[in-house]
Amino acid sequence: MRRITNPKHIYVDQVGTVVDYEGEKHLITDVGGGCFKVVRLRDGYGRNVEIRKILHR
Question: Is the pLDDT of residue 1 over 60?
Answer without folding.
Answer: no
